[in-house]
Amino acid sequence: MVCDALEVIVELLRAIPPPAVIPVAIVFLGVGDQMKVFIILFSCAFPILVNTMDGVRNVDPVLIRTARTFGLARGGLIWKVVLPAASPFIMTGLRIALAIALILVVISEMVGATSGIGYFILDSQRSFKIPQMYAGMLVLALLGYTLNRGFLLADARLMAWHKGLTARPR
Q1: Rounded-to-integer distance, Cα 39 and Cα 27, Å
Q2: Contacts with 110 (C-beta within 8 Å, 6 or more apart), sequence order
């Protein structure tokens, strides 16, 4: 029952496009880093929450029954069975959130900031400094690629145990 109520709230808030929240955030938080952080947290919470909820729902019931049979308490069940079983879903949500965060940092800088790469790109476009605009876009592309590669490396290290479990025999 609590999960169903939480899911309704998550789905209602998730339907709000993050750029639509920017003007409201500017009114309450002003133009600055607090506004950017709020927008990023608001937007990134949903892919992580939805994937985590799906991961928890997809935990094999046999694992849970086995853990209970061995006398694992509720806290131990969450930390030793549910969280590890849901972690591939959680990592997927984090990877999606990373891309969303980069996009929204740029959008928030374009809409309500006086510095940053988003502001630089928009200012360059408005000033007809086309090479600088493309340079800013190239920097963003390289940053996005680097962040994604770094995340994939961390994922490979953190989830090596899972990849070993799901690898197909040759």
Answers
A1: 13
A2: 118, 119, 121, 122
Q: Give CATH for domain 2-166.
A: 1.10.3720.10
Q: Round to whole Å and give the CA distance between 126 and 114.
A: 14
pLDDT reading at 170 higher than 60: no
Sequence-distant (≥ 6) Cβ neighbours of residue 166 within 8 angstroms: none
Structural tokens at position 71: 């006398």
State pLDDT tens for residues 152-168.
999 999 988 877 666 56
Of 44, 63, 65, 67, residue with least CA distance to 55: 63
Cα distance between residue 90 and residue 84, in whole Å: 10
**DSSP assigned state of 85:** H
With 0.90 as the threshold, say if the pTM is over it. no
124-144 b/e with 16+ CB inside 10 Å = b? bbeeeeeeebeebeeebeeee
Of the candidates 67, 92, 62, 98, the one whose C-alpha atom is nearest the C-alpha of residue 155 is 92
